[in-house]
Amino acid sequence: MPFAVAAAVLTGLISPAAAADGLAAATAAVSGFTLPERMTMTAVAADPLVANPVAFCLDEQGRVYVCETFRQSKGVEDNRGHG
């Protein structure tokens, strides 16, 4: 994750301030959750680092992979005849 953030900042895709602001807001939101004992929650990404998430996965090393879609409200008609 740190490499992805650094790459996005270095290529000008996001500003460091925007990334920090988004993560700070997500961290504040997470602190409002009530969790069961021994369970923790940590914000790892937020706008502008991720937008329109539809799925995520964790690998054995704890890395987070997120799938995004930018077709919301721009999909194709389902003409398969079921339904």
Keywords summarizing the entry:
two-stranded antiparallel ribbon; 83 residues; alpha+beta; single chain; extended
* Element pattern in H and E: HHEE
Number of strands: 2
Number of structural units classed as domains: 1
What structural class do helix, strand and pairing data support? alpha+beta
The radius of gyration over CA amounts to 17 Å
| Span between termini | 41 Å
Quote the beta fraction: 5-15%
Averaged pLDDT, please?
Answer: 75
Catalogue the unreliable spans: 5-12
Q: Tell me the strand order in the biggest sheet.
A: 1-2
Helix content bin: 25-40%
The number of helical elements comes to: 2
Shape: extended
Main sheet summary: 2 strands, antiparallel
What does this structure look like?
This protein is an alpha+beta fold and 83 residues long. The protein has one domain. 29% of the residues lie in helices and 13% in strands. The protein has 2 helices and 2 strands. It has a two-stranded antiparallel sheet with strand order 1-2. A hairpin with a 5-residue loop joins β1 and β2. The protein is extended.
